[in-house]
Design a protein that fits this description.
- With 137 residues, this protein is an alpha+beta fold.
- It has 2 helices and 6 strands.
- The chain is elongated, with a radius of gyration of 16 Å.
Length: 137
């Protein structure tokens, strides 16, 4: 039995999401985008977390954003990549290795937003997921 801790396995979750997407969607996946990379690509974005604790246990309710970037006049190609991400993650529990005693309770698609960049050929589509993780005690 592990000792409970309120600290969440956020780095491991980020690495696991990256591994789940990398090679399984039609765009490159980056945490830090190298210079001169061509679009389309996906970047690992922001995580917002609030405690999801209960009497005798710890957990986190996380909003995780994944950003899709394309070079196109319309949103179709960016939304196509976003749909690939949603298909891989929504209502699924990918094989993400969290530290002992932590586990993913659920991953749910929350929202997709279409954004225009100041460059008229760039399209940006943030895709947000709600991820709940708990720690067995």
């Amino acid at each position: 039995m592990s000792t409970p801790t309120a600290a969440g396995p956020f780095n491991e979750l980020l690495v696991g999401l990256y591994a789940t997407l990398n090679g399984n969607i039609s765009a490159g996946v980056y945490d830090d985008v190298p210079e001169r990379i061509t679009k389309p690509y996906v970047t690992m974005g922001e995580m917002f977390s609030i405690p999801d604790n209960w009497h005798g246990g710890f957990g986190w309710d996380i909003l995780s954003t994944i950003h899709v970037w394309t070079k196109a006049r319309g949103f179709k190609s960016a939304i196509d990549v976003a749909n690939e991400i949603i298909a891989l993650l929504d209502h699924k529990i990918p094989a993400i290795e969290l530290p002992a005693s932590w586990y993913i309770v659920s991953i749910r698609f929350v929202q997709l937003q279409t954004l225009r960049d100041p460059d008229p050929e760039i399209r940006h589509v943030p895709v947000q997921f709600r991820i709940v993780i708990h720690q067995e005690v």
